[in-house]
Backbone:
């Protein structure tokens, strides 16, 4: 059955759409909210803020997370900040400017109406967080401080040292805790959703595994919200937390929710370079460092050679022998170009042989001139914890020698397709935060992920979910003893049994690492038709290898981390293929998606607006079959489409 | 680098645990402690020893379970007691930020879970820290609803207060303070939250009530009393100081006087 994509974007002028929409969507009266159950999966910024807000409204909420506490969701690791159009700096910021820069930063592949709404509610988020006691950085006068992030012409990023995600999540987690205490939210830590259950085509519950006992449990509801983040760990090495995974979203896809723009993955320019084969995780160095850090490589290859042999220190290289390549290529934005641009520029220099470490895959991020300008104390105040983290990991003191950095997978802009109400193509099934595709187009700007997660959770979903639930308040509690639940539970149990029965020779991690290599090589920073086709074949072969030769030790009825990883990898092996498939279809370069066939003479991305100005939403057709592509055309009525220019 | 590892193995909460010794070889000095454990686990998996067989008398017991996630020192999941120190022999780090270059080549390293009445063992090195959630649910928040709040800049906060609040808010809820304390007290954890909020005008309003409710919950859940040994401060990976315990005590006394 073919899906109809209806984005439900409200009519009317852009600036009035959200207000008008809120005024006209249906709401459930307070007495009836008590009768309605909502499942929220995931406790990051999106999930925690949604569950807390829905609980406050009076719904019965159940919230699930795979870690031992909601506070450990990966939002906690976001460093740099959160954008808002407050214009506290008097630098002429506005809702429109934030909207415009987000669309432009996303290379004109996101929805105007969604992005405008995001910019509009950004200000409410800051108010909300301050009221919750989030200790944002402040000026001496007691008011809030800001800093700059990539792709922005104004200083609109609010921050709490290098731990903004942590502080915002602790705010949302506190609001969640308040609702748990009030009895409106029930929390299920160490539970992993393994399937979504549909009854008559509508989402009515989930199957989850209790990660302590291994028990497979059924949970019913009137609506299900997916807030489980992105699928960046398909690449094995990424800045995502080790347990972050795409499985919940993937089960939704396999049950009929369309998956949009899967190939849009963000590669973050400033990560600590890979040190060796034993590594399993890459560490991000916040984009905020590009406020004061300057990125460079030597101009002379002989200097590069000496650096690699440790014959000279970076500080020995004279000013005139350094190539500050971002400042050279993009004078208007300099070191603060968007992430995709900065990443490709680093790759370009390293491919040309200027990489500064033994592997040839590193460039410098240097604070010398900032220390000369504002002093070491000021630099410490701004970035102290990041510098400390860098020194702990590398053993190098970044106050004395420049940091070494290289791009790494960081975030996925693609995700479950949602309409303006954040509902997927499955009625009653919602996706929020990084799990959906909606706001960032081909590239997310720094400090916008936190904004989107909290916008969706605090302000958008609580307003829109009522529109669906208002038609269901007479429905009784969802009965979990139906054939649909039984069938879903059985499928999950069969899959687990199958995994144990293989008893092969390879560990889950060894196969995951191999998948990561394939993804980085063929579906990474530079993609070509030939490479993508090869990648797809290799992924398919590896998937076969997995199902024939993986070894999952232990049993289901226990705490079993290898089983958890195996279940997630089974899905990554399918997600990776869809990413490549989508990348192959999108024969243009835009944002983080770079097709070598589509570039300018200077090596910049070349969009093809005539043929690809659409959201690619894929519909699952069953194992071994190609998914069906649905195109949601993107219309720009309030913004002039242009080639992204960060040069002048 | 080569190491001998003495690791606590325990099948589940009900079974008795014991130490087992393993060897790992060719570890890079830049590998983190958890990456070293990944390598050990890969080794144990490749040996193909069926952990279920352990119940039937087998010596080894499959891969070692341990909590971990972000691997950059912020999620608070990792929680290993290494050679008698919470998060091992380095200062101001979580276990995932501990690197093998901190150890002598050839050393024998002892790895245990947090040991505290408040944190029952789930398996091997994994403990149950839900008690921390429960303490925070008792009052570790400011009672505001979503929406209907004033403009952010209408609540000025003196910079030193905001900074100190942030110092306390840096707590990652890992449990090192409890694991280190000879009394198994959660005072530093509770104090960090109470102090962080009490320093802000928004949080001041409920400060006394919050302190009282959280301390009562901490006591109820079996955490010990604070006897000011300051061991918690020494091992806190985020360098949260006992000055916050002093502030907690002030708020707590204020609540008592109000009763």
Residues:
């Amino acid at each position: 059955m073919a899906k109809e994509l209806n984005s439900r974007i409200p009519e009317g002028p852009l600036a009035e759409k959200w207000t008008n929409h809120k005024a006209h969507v249906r709401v459930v009266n307070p007495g009836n909210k008590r009768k309605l159950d909502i499942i929220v999966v995931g406790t990051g910024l999106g999930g925690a803020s949604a569950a807390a807000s829905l609980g406050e409204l009076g719904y019965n909420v159940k919230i699930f997370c795979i870690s031992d506490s909601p506070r450990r969701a990966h939002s906690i690791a976001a460093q740099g900040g959160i954008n808002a159009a407050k214009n506290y700096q008097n630098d002429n910021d506005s809702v429109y400017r934030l909207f415009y820069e987000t669309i432009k930063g996303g290379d004109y592949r996101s929805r105007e109406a969604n992005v405008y709404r995001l910019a509009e509610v950004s200000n409410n988020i800051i108010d909300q967080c301050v009221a919750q006691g989030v200790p944002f950085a402040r000026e001496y006068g007691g008011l809030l401080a800001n800093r700059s992030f990539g792709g922005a012409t104004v200083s609109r990023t609010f921050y709490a040292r290098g731990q903004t995600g942590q502080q915002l999540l602790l705010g949302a987690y506190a609001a969640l805790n308040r609702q748990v205490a009030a009895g409106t939210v029930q929390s299920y830590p160490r539970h992993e959703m393994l399937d979504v259950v549909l009854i008559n085509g509508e989402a009515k519950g989930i199957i989850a595994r209790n990660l302590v006992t291994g028990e497979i449990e059924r949970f019913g509801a009137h609506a299900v919200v997916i807030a489980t983040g992105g699928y960046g760990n398909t690449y094995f090495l990424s800045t995502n937390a080790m347990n972050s995974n795409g499985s919940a979203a993937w089960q939704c896809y396999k049950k009929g929710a369309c998956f949009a723009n899967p190939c849009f993955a963000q590669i973050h320019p400033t990560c600590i370079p890979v040190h060796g084969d034993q590594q399993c995780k890459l560490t991000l160095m916040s984009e905020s460092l590009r406020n004061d850090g300057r990125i460079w490589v030597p101009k002379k290859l002989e200097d590069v050679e000496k650096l690699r042999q440790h014959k000279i220190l970076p500080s020995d290289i004279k000013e005139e022998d350094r190539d500050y390549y971002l400042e050279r290529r993009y004078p208007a934005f300099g070191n603060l170009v968007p992430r995709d641009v900065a990443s490709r520029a680093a790759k370009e220099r390293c491919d040309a042989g200027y990489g500064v470490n033994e592997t040839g895959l590193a460039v410098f991020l240097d604070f010398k001139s900032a220390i000369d300008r504002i002093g070491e104390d000021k630099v410490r105040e701004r970035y102290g914890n990041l510098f400390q983290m860098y020194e702990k990991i590398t053993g190098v003191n970044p106050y004395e020698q420049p940091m070494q950095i290289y791009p790494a997978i960081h975030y996925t802009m693609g995700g479950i397709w949602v309409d303006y109400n954040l509902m997927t193509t499955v009625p009653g099934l919602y996706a929020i935060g990084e799990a959906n595709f909606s706001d960032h187009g081909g590239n997310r700007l720094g400090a916008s992920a936190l904004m989107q997660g909290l916008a969706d959770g605090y302000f958008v979903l609580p307003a829109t979910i009522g529109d669906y639930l208002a038609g269901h308040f007479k429905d009784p509690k969802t009965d979990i003893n139906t054939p649909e639940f039984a069938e879903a539970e059985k499928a999950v149990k069969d899959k687990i049994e199958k995994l144990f029965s293989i008893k092969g020779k390879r560990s889950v991690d060894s196969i995951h690492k191999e998948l990561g290599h394939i993804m980085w090589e063929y579906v990474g920073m530079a993609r070509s038709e030939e490479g993508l086709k090869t990648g797809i074949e290799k992924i398919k072969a590896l998937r076969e290898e997995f199902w024939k030769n993986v070894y999952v030790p232990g049993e289901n009825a226990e705490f079993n981390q290898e089983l958890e990883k195996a279940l997630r990898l089974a899905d990554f092996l399918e997600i990776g293929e869809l990413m490549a498939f989508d990348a192959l279809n999108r024969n243009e370069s835009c944002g983080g998606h770079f097709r070598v066939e589509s570039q300018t003479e200077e090596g910049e991305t070349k969009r093809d607006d005539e043929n690809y100005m659409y959201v690619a939403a894929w519909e699952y057709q069953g194992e071994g079959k190609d998914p069906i592509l649905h195109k949601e055309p993107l219309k720009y009525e309030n913004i002039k489409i242009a080639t992204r220019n960060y040069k002048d | 680098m080569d190491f001998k590892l003495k690791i606590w193995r325990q099948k589940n909460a009900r079974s008795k645990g014991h130490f087992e010794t393993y060897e790992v070889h060719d570890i890079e000095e830049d590998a983190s402690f958890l990456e070293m454990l990944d390598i050990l686990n890969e080794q144990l998996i490749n040996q193909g020893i069926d952990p279920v067989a352990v119940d039937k008398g087998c010596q080894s017991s499959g891969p070692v379970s341990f909590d971990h996630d972000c691997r950059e020192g912020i999620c608070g999941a990792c929680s290993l007691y290494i050679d008698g120190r919470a998060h091992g022999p380095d200062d101001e780090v979580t276990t995932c930020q501990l690197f093998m270059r901190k150890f002598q080549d050839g050393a024998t390293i002892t790895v245990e879970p947090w040991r505290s009445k408040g944190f029952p063992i789930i398996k091997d090195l994994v403990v149950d820290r839900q008690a921390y959630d429960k303490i925070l649910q008792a009052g570790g928040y400011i009672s505001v609803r979503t929406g209907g709040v004033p403009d952010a800049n209408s609540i000025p906060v003196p910079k030193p207060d905001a900074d100190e609040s942030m110092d306390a808010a840096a707590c990652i809820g890992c449990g090192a303070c409890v694991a280190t304390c000879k009394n198994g007290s959660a005072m530093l954890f509770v104090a960090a939250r109470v102090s962080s909020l009490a320093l802000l005008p928004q949080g001041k309003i409920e400060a006394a009530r919050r302190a009282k409710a959280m301390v009562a919950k901490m006591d109820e859940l079996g955490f010990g009393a604070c006897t000011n040994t300051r061991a918690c401060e020494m091992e806190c990976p985020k360098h949260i100081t006992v000055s916050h315990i002093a502030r907690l005590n002030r708020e707590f006394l204020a609540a008592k006087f109000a009763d």
Residues 25 and 223 of chain B are 39 Å apart (CA to CA).
